[in-house]
Design a protein that fits this description.
Helices cover 54% and strands 13% of the residues. By secondary structure, it is of the alpha/beta class. A five-stranded parallel beta sheet has the order 2-1-3-4-5, with helices on both faces.
């Protein structure tokens, strides 16, 4: 039995290995897609289950406010981001009255317009409600960014832009998705700040 210290050291060693193997070309494509949506005034939707639902909510917060700096006072055009994970009453209505797999796809049909962007987060890439939302997005003409691990799963074949964490362990995959959020947010903040000549 490993000690807690040994377990922590092993986890960090594995996480470092995953970080050293990140596909930076995929990160660049994700950022470019978000920049394009922002420039065109498109709505960005974010979804995920479990820990990835928390990542979706965190990402919504960071994209809406974090891109404007800690005090939110950068005088820049704002991103328009909604985490569909945050409307519990609507999610449970669809889950209770129809099917759990509809909790994201149906709200997306209410809100999304052609040209918008969906960030679909699924560590396995195989979550049925995520895949249903991606199918709905494609029917609506909404571009899809897929954030996954485990080789990408079914989401890898459906997403327009893909970021796959090179790991088959949920912990590091979810860790890296949060790191990606902070990379995107800090990059956009610096770019918006520079564009408006603020410090």
């Amino acid at each position: 039995m490993k000690t807690s210290r040994e377990h922590a050291q092993n986890y960090i060693t594995e996480l470092k290995s995953v970080l050293d193997r990140l596909p930076f070309d995929q990160i660049e494509c994700v950022i470019q897609s978000i920049e394009a949506a922002h420039a065109e005034g498109r709505q960005i939707f974010v979804i995920g289950n479990g820990g990835s639902a928390a990542t979706a909510s965190h990402m919504m917060n960071d994209f809406n406010k974090g891109t404007l700096g800690h005090k939110g006072d950068t005088p820049a055009k704002r991103l328009r981001v909604i985490a569909l994970t945050d409307n519990v009453s609507l999610m449970t209505a669809w889950a209770n009255d129809t099917d759990y797999n509809h909790i994201f796809s149906e709200p997306l049909k209410n809100l999304a317009q052609h040209g918008d962007l969906l960030v679909a987060i699924s560590a396995s890439g195989n979550s049925p409600n995520i895949l249903a939302a991606v199918d709905a997005a494609r029917e609506l003409g909404v571009k899809v960014i897929g954030l996954t691990g485990f080789g990408g799963g079914k989401l890898a074949k459906l997403a327009d832009v893909l970021f796959i964490v090179p790991s088959d362990d949920y912990g590091p995959v979810e860790d890296v998705h949060m790191i990606l959020d902070h990379i995107i947010t800090s990059y956009l903040y610096e770019k918006l700040k520079q564009a408006h000549g603020t410090r």
